[in-house]
Design a protein that fits this description.
Elements: E1 4-7, E2 10-15, E3 20-26, E4 31-34, H1 40-56, E5 61-65, H2 71-74, E6 84-88, H3 91-94, H4 98-107, E7 119-121, E8 124-128, E9 133-137, E10 149-152, E11 157-161, H5 177-190, E12 196-199, H6 207-229, H7 234-237, H8 249-264
Parallel strand pairs: 4-5, 5-6, 6-7, 11-12
Antiparallel strand pairs: 1-2, 2-3, 3-4, 8-9, 9-10, 10-11
Helix pairs in contact: 5-6, 6-8
Length: 267
């Protein structure tokens, strides 16, 4: 694991086993880390490396900001128990999702023992690191109920967690497909052609790639809603005549299931 500087003060490391991106933000006064790694061991390794980066600049790591509650972004938190932890106010609820419970059993992580965020954000927050401003926003339920976007306006950089995954979106019981599309519409209005978008997994993206991902997600929602209104059974939706889907069958069928769950809740 090595951090590399993408833009002044913005450092990226990729945890290869889970292909998770971790961002260190180094201002002139203090440092912050975005996401905590996928295991206690990863958390300890991250803490050591970010402390070294901060020490080299004569500053200290003061905060951890969580893009959402899924295990691969949160299970390293024990290494940061002495720091301020920032999350959206539904983070603890989402930590109990089926995916996190399964991962906790597999990795031997006690969910109840993970440090709890002390600073909870409902909609917006702001942190000053010294020359780097971190604007924090929750734009509504999307990939999960507790997604946060961290924007660094001085560097036109947006850290978006799993709101954008070019390999294909991941869905679970905390996802809102309609809300996700609306969130990406809002995000698209915030970014510019020269903006750097750092997703939770994979390489950094640009505005055009964000638009492409948003179009694919909207295709799942719009077509799922249409077949649902036509009375088509969920199991028959993928193969319904005249529909074109943006990703592989397993990804799309998971999206159809999430869309149908959301639509049934309104009936």
């Amino acid at each position: 694991m090595l951090f590399r500087e993408l833009r002044p003060g913005v450092f990226l490391a990729n945890l290869e086993a889970e292909n998770v991106n971790i961002v260190a933000l180094l201002g002139s006064q203090c440092a912050a880390l975005v996401d905590a790694g996928a295991s206690p061991e990863q958390g300890l390794a991250l803490r050591s490396q970010v402390d070294d980066l901060a020490d080299a600049r004569g500053i200290r790591l003061g905060e951890v900001m969580l893009t959402h509650a899924h295990w691969d972004h949160s299970f390293g938190l024990n290494a940061f128990a002495d720091l301020s932890i920032i999350a959206q106010e539904q983070w603890a609820e989402d930590l109990n999702c089926a995916e996190d419970r399964e991962a906790a059993g597999r990795l031997g992580v006690d969910l109840a023992a993970l440090p709890q965020p002390q600073s909870l954000i409902a909609l917006i927050g702001l942190r000053q690191l010294g020359g780097l401003t971190v604007e924090i926003a929750h734009l509504g339920p999307a990939h999960s109920r507790c997604d946060l976007i961290m924007a660094i306006p001085e560097q036109s950089t947006f850290i978006v967690g799993d709101l954008v995954e070019m390999a294909g979106p991941q869905f679970d019981e905390t996802s809102s497909i309609e809300g996700w599309v609306k969130t990406l519409d809002a995000l698209y209005s915030m970014v510019h052609d020269d903006s750097l978008i750092i997703p939770g997994h994979g390489p950094a993206l640009n505005r055009a790639e964000l638009a492409h991902f948003r179009s694919g997600l909207a295709a799942i929602w719009d077509q799922s809603e249409w077949v649902f209104r036509q009375g088509v059974a969920q199991d028959d939706a993928y193969d319904h005549d005249g529909l074109e889907w943006p990703w592989d069958r397993s990804t799309v069928e998971a999206g159809i299931a999430a869309s149908y769950r959301e639509l049934r809740a309104r009936v």
